[in-house]
Amino acid sequence: MNHLETVRKYYPIANTTDVMVNGMLNLIEADLGLKPHQLMHADSLCCDDVNAIQYPPRAHEMLGPFNMGGLDGYPFAGLTGMGAFAHHVPDGGAIVIFYAPHIGVTKDGKIGEINRYGQDVNSTCCGAAKAALGKLSEGAINEGEITKNDYQQNTIEQILFESKDRILNADIQIKEATDVIYEAIDEQISFLIANTDYPCDHLFQVGGIMINGDRDMGSFSTFNRFEYHNIKSGAKTDLRSRVADF
Q1: Contact, 73 vs 45, CB < 8 A?
Q2: If we measure between CA atoms, which residue out of 188, 200, 196, 233 comes closest to residue 72?
């Protein structure tokens, strides 16, 4: 079975994460002459262990990653985290920020779950998004309620609550919830970038959806944003259409 075809039933622009990361790094080297060891890498991904297990090997050629994300990839490290990371960039190098909520797709096409390593039965993915969606469906989320004991999950719940009708009226609610979370992450990362000083000339903002497959499938990704920031001039360039060329 072609696992990529299964994933593309839900995410037509997805490819394997290895292909996407290789394309990104090759493009950066072609355009700027920078090799992976000259790139300071931050990610904002869910703290779920499956993302660490399925992290693409070539991404480890970059410096880092500096982990910005908590549950479902929301950048809970905030301005302090972004500011700290910004000053780790090597001299003459560049910054790469990759962020994505994640969702599971099994080899038989079930969305919102995966068969994890060492387990016989499927489990939810992303579990935090699925739990928040369950509370949303039951009307159990109170507007504005965020507690110190479950701050991250409550934040995810509030993000979904703000788009309640959109999510509950969707054909595939967990996919729609993941899209909503992506949009919230993208907005917050953009805010953090705009309010951080970077001691370098080049920054790449890369956002999408991380799609975890079963334990023998690997992972897949979409690039909903692949944007080059020229920090000196303030110019931004959309590079999404060029990733496949590399």
Answers
A1: yes
A2: 188
